[in-house]
Amino acid sequence: MSSMKSRTSLLFVVLTLLTVALFAVDLAVGSVAIPLREVWASLTGGEVAASTAKIVRSIRLLKAVVALLAGAALAVSGLQMQTLFRNPLAGPYVLGISSGASFGVALLLLGAPMLGLGGSTLLSSFGMAGAAWVGAAIILTLVAVLSRRIKDIMVILILGMMCSSGIDAVVQILQYLSSEGALKSFVIWTMGSLGDVTSPQLGLLAAAVLIGFVLAVAVIKPLNLLLLGEQYARTMGLNIHRTRRLVFLSTTLLAGTVTAFCGPVGFIGLAVPHLARMLFREADHGILIPAAALTGSCILLLCDIVSKWLTLPINTVTALMGIPIVVWVVLRHKTIA
User: Fold this and answer.
1) Angle, vertex CA 137, rays to CA 220 and CA 258, nearest 5
2) pLDDT per residue as tens digits for the range 122-140
3) pLDDT tens digit string along 235-244?
């Protein structure tokens, strides 16, 4: 037991150091390479060119912090979904968060110009992030309301997927009818970006993610009970409906907020929880939640470094890194079955 605890502690230390190292490299890498000593000088107020200090503080630091928060948020929300649905291929977008967010942005970018509202001051101030968050929240609220009447969690999963497919169909109709300029803006949003978050928006992102993490910590014990099945959890006195509502709310705040500000960043929430389980060899969510958060931050920082190095959208890189993990999970479960 003590050796297991020592191994877990060592893994947390290694992951923390790796996160710090990747964070520093992310600040140094870009269209203009900046030596680490100049990055440090920029952050600490040392002697460095004004242009270098501006690049590090105003652009790269903001983007790296977003990657740190987004990676952790998507990984934890994916872990909760996989446990709640007892499905290794469930992710943060399984209930239609991504589709809801896409629908909100599609209405803003594609639908509003069709109705002659493209230049509306109200819609402009609302922004893509606001439209995406409202769209995601509406879908999760609908699912949460349905979950109060439905006992079988798999039925909720199917309803979420059907709802997602229906929304995707409407978004495709809007894409088909929209102008070339509006369509290009929407497609760029779907590719995901960590660099579009402003300083005021970062405060909102961090606050929402923090509340989402607090809710995730609050459901650690219920999630551990759900690993043994809903029937067993009920006999132990667990309020299943309350647990579902808390998990849905946490997922909305974590994955929904990240999607609103960064676009639908794929595969992090699906693949990282499996990496965390593989590394830590644990089922206890008291360990898995911080493990997934740290691993998610590491992976998304690494993806950001690669995307800047290869000049590719962040979604492309996360998919290329996440697909092998998902394939491994599918093959592993097929072998076990």
Assistant:
1) 70
2) 444 457 778 888 888 888 7
3) 888 888 888 8
The model's pTM is 0.89
Residue 291: both structure tokens together: 């493990």
Outline where 33-179 has alpha helix (H): 36-44, 50-54, 61-85, 97-106, 112-114, 121-147, 153-177
Kind plus residue range of the DSSP H or E element containing 321? helix 314-336
Q: How far is CA 218 from CA 85, 147, 250, 282, 307, in A?
A: 18, 20, 10, 19, 35
Of 310, 73, 93, which is closest to residue 190 (Cα–Cα)? 93
Cα–Cα distance, 22 to 309 (Å, whole number):
14
The first and second tokens of residue 61, run together, are 């630091």
> What DSSP state is assigned to residue 55?
I
Nearest Cα to Cα of residue 74 among 94, 47, 54, 50: 94
